[in-house]
TrEMBL record:
AMP-dependent synthetase/ligase domain boundaries: 92-479
Species for this entry: Marmoricola endophyticus
Protein name (record): Acetyl-coenzyme A synthetase
Gene it is expressed from: acsA
PTM statement from Swiss-Prot or TrEMBL: Acetylated. Deacetylation by the SIR2-homolog deacetylase activates the enzyme.
Residues annotated to bind CoA: R196, R197, G198, A199, T320, S534
Amino acid sequence: MNDKSETLASLSHEERRYAPQEDLVAQANVTQQTYDDAAADRLGFWEKAAERLEWGQRWDRVLDWDDPPFAKWFVGGTLNASYNCVDRHVEAGNGDRVAIHWIGEPEDDTRDITYAQLKDEVSQAANALSDMGVGTGDRVAIYMPMIPETAIAMLACARLGAIHTVVFGGFSSDALASRVLDCEAKVIVTSDGGYRRGAPSGLKPAVDEAVAKVAQEDADLVTNVLVVQRTGQDVEWNDSLDVWWHDAVGGASTEHTPEQFDAEHPLFVMYTSGTTGKPKGILHTTGGYLVQTSYTHWATFDLKPETDVFWTAADIGWITGHSYIVYGPLANGTTSVMYEGTPDTPHKGRWWEIVQKYGVTILYCAPTAIRTFMKWGSEIPEEYDLSTLRVLGSVGEPINPEAYVWYRDTIGAGKAPVMDTWWQTETGGHMITPLPGVTHGKPGSAMTAFPGISAEVVDDEGTPVGDGEGGLLVITEPWPAMLRTLWGDDERFKETYWSRFADQGYYFAGDGAKKDEDGDLWLLGRVDDVMNVSGHRMSTTEIESALVSHPKVAEAAVVGAADETTGQAVCAFVILRESALQGGEEASDDLIQELRMHVQKEIGAIAKPRQIMVVPELPKTRSGKIMRRLLKDVAENREVGDVTTLADSTVMDLIKDGSSSGG
Ligand code: WTA
């Protein structure tokens, strides 16, 4: 973290300031008054935000924090998330409004789905799932490409009170199997395949493998696999499990009466990487999550549902997609764009062509995408009419000032403000962000806590640091969309987030942060063994376990090294087994490639190391802990830092000599 703080120290001397545009201020959803109101009465503020939704039964208590860290919000209230995202817009006379402009990767493969159509399809899917025996509290795994059916399946689960767990379609069959087993999902929703860079790529084969693995542990767990036909590619078919979506959902009734569920009824589990190898199942519940995602979506982006065209360019398989493609936007009756493909298929102007064609007014994406577009050159977006864009968002990792300014100038015509939103899978929704009608933005700073959110930067003892100082980011008060626990593991929940500052009762986010001279917040990245690659969380230990599971690898250490485009990149150091070395296996390119592919098979392509260095030793402390900090120095081609706590201080010389050969 040290070198990072130094960079950030220079960054936060950033002098550029962007006052909010006058036209935005004049009609802004949120003003300074909102901050003041929330500061005066935090729970009253969230209560008002909750009134934007439709409830069966009103709550009788806003927050129950009697048994921290287990929060209950809107106690006694009942609602249906699917009804709030779909039916109520139809009942309000907006059935003809487009909910989703879906754009497939193959050009001209598009669908516009109105709220009325969405209601029909979600109802059909709910009826089909219900016919498969899915009921309240059951778990359903969703392993899909970016197609409307992914959102429809989620909303169908929510409608039934079933708990969905969406597994990113880029994950391996092993990753899918372990998640299905961990949350005991009885049904898996998938598709034959999806399109990736111009070619169909299979998903069903990975599901078949996962189902076989799951069956070894629990033969009766998975009872059905519901398969959307997307690419038309050949698939293996198991008559006792597999059901086509177009048969089961297509043939179901469009009538389905949603039931009201308790505000604390589980809505979904989203697995995310932690500091150990085993992914954590983050549990979100219905009321608080929907209140915060819908309210933040409306406030952060200054959303006008009647006129805006909103686009979150992320995958539904991540929390950003859950909160800001599905639940937030749909609860607000938004017209959204949903795009299946990559930014350069079939050409590098694809995003901008979409903005122009659909008149996108709000764009939300990750800094890694922005840096990639910068690298490709301003000429590409300049060919398109982007004048409809009025608010821009950034999420997933710190946005460097250069990328921020380029985004604002080139994509936002020098006037669309950039909302740098800090939050996490665990927080459910935005926590620290500028707001379009209020904030004087500083490139690179996420600025201030959202109204009704209490964030602080503290030192190791939990004491707030002064302006101009750095420390650890904590959240000091519970918030509506906070995770409620880790699936099946209350102890790990307490240990991971609440033990570091147990005396103060603070939530420890795992991020370093700094307050600048004005008290504004700058996020400095993770302080634990979690990497951030293209805005995706990866655990160093998880990738290490994958490497060590290869028969030729004896030991492995993984670090996230700074990368110009992806923020961080996975760099691995491996010690080969004697047997591999005796077999004449040097650090050959073939072997490196084999190990990279092995990680891809075990976890998924996103985890594939950029670089693998074969080394004779790893730097360890006397207690045997790998000093990743030193490896990071090597991976980033820096002078190696302090080695005095190493058990053997000569190890680093061996590593530096060795590492040059196998990169
Ligand atoms: C990082 C994604 C700096 C941070 C929504 C956090 C950010 C982790 C920002 C959560 C931001 C996210 N500035 N860092 N605006 N947004 N992060 O769970 O390290 O995939 O802890 O949630 O991403 O990643 P997750």
